[in-house]
């Protein structure tokens, strides 16, 4: 037993040292970094869309959410930023017992939705179910605003479980509207499907996916899961362009995928990324429930 404890301590210390090891990179540009921070805030705001605030958003967006949804555990909002000519769709992550039940349905099933199917792609059963309950609402809303807000860019965001659902939404909307300018930002998103799923997502969307904590490593390669690219990895604090690395693809061994055993340290990062705290509203300095527009 003593030898086992010593071995475990050595293993944990090695993981901690590896996590703290310096990473030699070229800093990302300020515009890229600012966008990572901006959309992290919109992802975090999804946790509070059920508050009584008329405008649970900030960042200069004059409008309140054009759509709020909460269907069988899948929650989020859609907001129109007319100044930036942008539609932002945000999905909430794991927050309730229903969400946990979704997360633990980790067996894979064929990708089959009304918007996009591929018999060779296998995906997380729970994440697909979470998308299916909201798919019609999202696609009907997309049809409306693609027409009403012609020429607007679309940005799909989500944290944790919400990041996985954001991948489905991005794939579905971009597949239906291939000329639409669409970008995806996910934060702490778990792996959601196999290599065919990744190829489909990258081919149709060309997504940016951000992850670096325990959640993205839990559904491992041994279960047949993979991440799409491109990963922007904040490898140490404080959050700054100098401390963020642009990785190669979605499974760069020099980025977050190298951590398989350091969950005790990197799990804390799941609650705050790029200086943004999830599960509290980051859009007002006081982080109250009702940020200003």
Primary descriptors:
alpha/beta, disordered C terminus, disordered N terminus, single chain, Rossmann fold, 6-stranded mixed beta sheet, 293 residues, two-stranded antiparallel sheet
Total number of beta strands:
12
CATH superfamily: Alpha/Beta hydrolase fold, catalytic domain
Output mean pLDDT: 76
Q: From the alpha carbons, calculate the radius of gyration and give it in angstroms.
A: 19 Å
Q: What percent of residues are in strands?
A: 15-25%
For the largest beta sheet, what order do the strands appear in spatially?
1-2-3-6-7-8
Structural domains: how many:
1
And the CATH topology?
A: Rossmann fold
The parts where pLDDT drops under 50 for at least 5 residues are: 1-24, 261-266, 281-293
Q: Helix fraction?
A: 25-40%
Sheet having the most strands:
6 strands, mixed
Keywords: Disulfide bond, Signal
Domain Fungal lipase-type: 89-218
Signal peptide: 1-20
Catalytic activity: a diacylglycerol + H2O = a monoacylglycerol + a fatty acid + H(+); a monoacylglycerol + H2O = glycerol + a fatty acid + H(+)
Describe the structure.
The protein has 293 residues and is α/β, with parallel strands linked by helices. The protein has one domain (28-49, 57-277): Rossmann fold. Helix content is 34%, strand content 20%. A 6-stranded mixed beta sheet has the order 1-2-3-6-7-8, with helices on both faces. It has a two-stranded antiparallel sheet with strand order 4-5. A two-stranded antiparallel sheet has the order 9-10. Helix 7 (195-204) links the parallel strand 7 and strand 8. Helix 4 (125-132) crosses helix 6 (161-176). The longest helix is centred in the N-terminal third of the chain and has 19 residues, at 2-20. The model is unreliable at 1-24, 261-266 and 281-293 (pLDDT under 50).
